[in-house]
Design a protein that fits this description.
Immunoglobulin-like, 2 domains, 6-stranded mixed sheet, 5-stranded antiparallel sheet, 5 helices, 22 strands
Length: about 325
């Protein structure tokens, strides 16, 4: 009698079992097999998923269990499809996943080297001229999953979720009560300064550069001087040291007089509709100027009154 080859028997059993387990992945939608990431954007005031049309492109960076760069996935809205789903071709293991939405020409990243670039060392930066941001940056979104376990694809289907957050904020400053002739002579200027131009890959702020944001300005039918900004995120803990500045050029000596230099974070918190600076992405702030007392007083809606001690001519 020919002896039974136990090795061959075990090989056949393994192949049969593997085939049965994988049958669903062969016949069904491949996006349901192994690991995939579902992206959404619900961290907004409405609490609804506003991923589309707010986010048109995603860059997902993959780091291994040692925090070293492995790969990057880039997909536009059409490639992600209506379900905003991204299939990951990863072996079982532990990974860090970092996603940026709408990366474009307003932002810059270093060159990534596989197996060498560490997730703890990468910094995303807002492009600027020196320390001046003279144009509105495009909206930027962030999302992440750290120390996530990818399970064997033949054992189960695995779907991960990354909920994005908006890193750019729109701020409209409406200045009322300014002399029309001085507005026409372009003697007034509104600015925002903040330490918020560079980001680690956990979305924490990196660096100490104090940026100067230049707004788009206009005058409406009521003679209100309007300054519109797009800035990077402000932090409630005050670490960005953001300031709102309003200045006047003295026609006599051409010197720049500070009518207002106030902490922006406190003003934003006083004018919030919700409860979270990270979730709210649009703020409208009213400044009411009063020159009748012999000096400029500014009432900031929702906050306080400031006496500048200076009179506009």
């Amino acid at each position: 009698m020919k002896p039974i080859n136990s090795v061959n028997i075990w090989i056949k059993i393994f192949c049969l079992t593997f085939g049965l387990l994988m049958q669903g992945c062969i016949t069904d939608d491949l996006s349901e097999c192994g690991a995939s990431v579902y992206f959404q954007y619900t961290r907004n005031l409405e609490g609804t998923d506003k991923f589309s049309p707010d986010i048109q492109k995603l860059n997902l960076f993959i780091f291994d269990s040692d925090g070293l760069f492995m790969d990057e996935y880039e997909m536009d809205e059409a490639q992600l499809g209506s379900e905003h789903l991204m299939r990951l071709n990863l072996f079982p293991g532990t990974y860090d996943l970092v996603a940026w939405g709408n990366l474009g020409g307003d932002y810059e990243l270093p060159v990534f080297v596989r197996g060498k670039t560490s997730v703890g060392e990468v910094v995303l930066s807002l492009k600027r001229t020196g320390k001046t941001v003279s144009k509105h940056p495009g909206d930027l979104f962030f999302g992440s999953l750290f120390r996530v376990e990818i399970l064997p694809a033949i054992q189960r289907k695995q779907r991960l979720t990354i909920d994005m957050i908006k890193d750019t904020k729109k701020i409209r400053i409406i200045a009322k009560g300014l002399p029309a002739e001085e507005i026409a002579r372009q003697k007034f200027a509104c600015r925002i300064t903040s330490i918020n131009g560079d980001y680690n890959f956990d979305n924490s702020i990196n660096g100490s550069d104090r940026l100067l944001y230049i707004p788009q300005t206009s005058v409406d039918e009521q003679g209100q001087f309007i300054s519109e900004f797009v800035i990077m995120r402000d932090l409630e803990d005050g670490s960005t040291q953001s300031r709102l500045l309003f200045t006047y050029e003295d026609p006599d000596d051409k010197s720049i007089k500070e009518l207002l230099n106030a902490g922006l974070t406190q003003i934003l918190l006083a004018n919030m509709k919700g409860q979270d600076l990270d979730i709210e992405d649009f703020f409208e702030i009213e400044l009411l100027f009063d020159f009748t007392s012999g000096s400029a007083k500014i009432y900031i809606k929702g906050w306080q009154t400031i006496d500048t001690g200076y009179m506009v001519n």
